[in-house]
Protein: Sugar ABC transporter permease
Amino acid sequence: MRSYVNRAPQDTRGTPVTYLGLIVVMLFSAFPVYWMFVIATSTDEAVSSIPPSVIPGGELMTNLNEVFTLQNVYFTASLINSFVVSSVITAATLFFCSLAGFAFAKLRFKGRNALMVVVILTLTVPSQLGVVALYILMGELGWNGTLLAVIAPGLVSAFGVFYMRQFIAHAVPDELVESARIDGALTMRVYWSIVVPAIRPALAVLGLLTFVMAWNDFQWPLITLNGTDFPTSMVALSDLASGNYVIYRRVLAGAFAATLPLIILLLIGGRQIVRGIMEGAVKS
Structure:
């Protein structure tokens, strides 16, 4: 292990220019969300006014009530479906990816490196190339049109396996694993009692990213749930925006309702994301 005892402490404080740049970037990043909220709280006249209004109105509850009471969209059910799909995919991804990452990082078996290369290569294949084959497979299983078809393809991800493998390789010492085996611990006991507690920050990061990606997924749910009455939230938003005449205040009110859970989740777990990234960047 490197020694940093004699190294002079570095000044990590930012300059005023740095903070000014961060503020500008933050404002540009947050403006689309703010504009969505402005339109979601406005009337049709305010939406079409020139110059456009940048001050929120008082029609948010009215617009949300229209969204949730539309007979052909079923927005409440779509939010519940998105929550179920995202939660199941997140839980499965955390378990399978951490277990596979532990195997690639700490277990010795023939073909380990070659198999890891195959996992990484799958990241270079666009997901759109497998849509037809996936649709046929889900049809053979009789899952098309159900949430099972949306959940099954996302139970494990190549990125999650690679991320867990890299984190476990640096966060869990080989000596700790070997000492557990000497004490008689089986592989699953080592995983559950030693590996999982050590990688909680990484699990938090992967869990948040997976939940957000599963919640925002649009293409595959649109294909497999086409024609059903209870799609996911992103498909329901596309239904709100379809038709010859689009009511933008209603669409963006629905978008605000679908985005609010993610904003709350990121506010609660944002610190865990930073902590997990920082711990994963430290090399011993």
